[in-house]
Amino acid sequence: MAIITISRQIASFGDEVATELSRQLGYSFINRKMLEGDLLKHGITEEKLRKYDEKKPGFWASLARDRDEYFDYLREAVYERAKGGNCVFIGRGGFAILKDVPGCYAVRLVSTDEIRTQRLMKEFSWTEKKAQALMMESDNNRRGFHKCFFNIDHDDPASYHIVLTTDAITPEIGAAIVHEACVRTITAVQEAEGLARIADLLQAQKIVNHIVFDLKISVHFLEATSTPTEIMLHGVADSSAVIEKVLSVARSMAPGKKITSGISIVQDYKSYP
User: Fold this and answer.
1) Rounded to whole angstroms, how far apart are CA atoms 267 and 238?
2) Which of 35, 45, 103, 260 is 20 to 30 A from 162 via CA?
3) Longest distance between any two alpha carbons in the chain, whole Å
4) Phi, psi (rounded to 5 degrees) for 90
């Protein structure tokens, strides 16, 4: 019941390894189209997907409220897809969203610029100059995406269980290496703990999204931390009445759990629309 996340550079065999790994393990392959479909069902428009999906947002876009909507629904979609285990995620910051989940195995695939350039030229019949330009654009976009949404350096090897260079291996060999490493690393106890943790994270994220985007209650930067017995809400509101309304909604969505508030009151607070 393990969960595997794959972060990759362009032309490093990311999709190929993920597809083959899913086949070898008999796991679901959670790709871009599946997560985009989930976001569209939540009302995220095609325009917002183009603006934020593994891209570095512009300055004003990084402050806009629809950035939070994209990010919060992305987290819900990842938790929803991961709740049953036995899945492989590619991209979309999956390793960062699931980084504190036991039994989640994070993989990074890289390749040298020379090899990546050659692969892009061969696959798309591009000139060397165009391949290098698109490679640099992709690298910058993915770096900016992870910095903006997760405040992390996705090139940091410490963020992963394994970093694999694919210059001299096939996708089949890469998948076999990850398969063996995962089997030898993740225990059944970790897998069970991970599924329980995802259930808590999913419940907390659904509460946040319902309060902010469905009910449109005026609380800013709303986050929820969850344990098996308690959910604590954090954010900024302009009155105690708003806080009580938020707590009431959370109690109705998580019966049996203790609901506590870490929400600050800041009167006349204004956020970027």
Assistant:
1) 4
2) 35
3) 62
4) -125, 125
Strand partners, 226: 231
- Average pLDDT for residues 212-229, to the nearest whole number? 94
CA distances for 11 relative to 14, 119, 231, angstroms:
7, 6, 42
Exposure string of 176-185, with b = 16+ CB inside 10 Å and e = fewer, is: bbbeebbeee
- What are 122-139's pLDDT values in tens digits? 999 999 999 999 999 999
- CB distance 155 to 143 below 8 Å: yes
Residue 196: its H or E element: helix 188-209
Please report, rounded to a whole number, the percentage of residues in the chain having pLDDT higher than 70.
93
Q: Name the residue among 3, 6, 50, 2 with its Cα closest to residue 175.
A: 6
pLDDT at 62: 46
Nearest CA to 263 out of 273, 101, 249, 254 is that of: 249
| Helix runs in 154-187, H state only | 171-185
| 149 — pLDDT class (breaks 50, 70, 90) | confident
Domains of the chain from N-terminus onward: 3-185 (3.40.50.300), 195-265 (3.30.1340.30)
CA 250 to CA 139: how far, in whole Å?
Answer: 40
> What Rg, from alpha-carbon coordinates, does the chain have?
20
What is the edge-to-edge ordering of all strands in the sheet holding 258-265? Answer: 219-226, 230-237, 258-265
DSSP at 167? T
